[in-house]
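Entry 14. Ran structure prediction on the chain below.
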Amino acid sequence: MTYLNLTRARVILLCFLIASAVLLKFPAIDLYIAGMFFDGRFYMQQQWWEQALHHGVGVFLCASMALVVAIYAFNRITRAELWGIDGAKVLYLLLVLAVGAGLLVNTTLKDNFGRARPRDVQQFGGHKQFTPAFVMADQCTTNCSFSSGDAAGAFFSLSLAMAFGRRRALFITSIVFGVAVSISRMAAGAHFFSDTLVSFFVMLITADVLNHYMLLPKPVTHLATKPILVSS
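Output, structure tokens:
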């Protein structure tokens, strides 16, 4: 895989491995951070800003994809190049959303690891057992805590930043949005810190891999030619 030859790819994967190892070695990190939002109850749950960010993820996904498709249709009809949106970028964004948030997070992780949400574990007044990240459990059957679907949806914004030219402002905005949504879900007792962090890495890696193979220009290889001898 040519992607693994990139320094950027190795750094991202190494950071993911280190973060995962730390979370496995010190699972109490999740309990400590969740405890910061708990004083007998998760007191920020149902507050307006928490609800706005929670429900805003779905609005963001629908609105952003609808806008991209609309601009693509406009470009096709008028032969314009507004924002550089073409069929490849539309397909790229759809695949990041389907593979990253859909297949990997919501289907593979959430419905198979069986991790209970913070508000349901014994440490925070619930009846279920706490289990660390990456550990298979039987405390939940569907739509479980690990990893966060809302965080994955919010960090889909990373792929928008990549599709629109890797502008620093777009990357900063996407990170801020993803972190804000992640904090809102932790504050509501819906997710542990590790749930949101893993979703961040899943979406970042998915977006970066697909961007490398689908959107970035491929290096041009020049074939060596033998000199032609002309006899007189």
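Residues 2-214 form one domain. Will compare against last week's run tomorrow.
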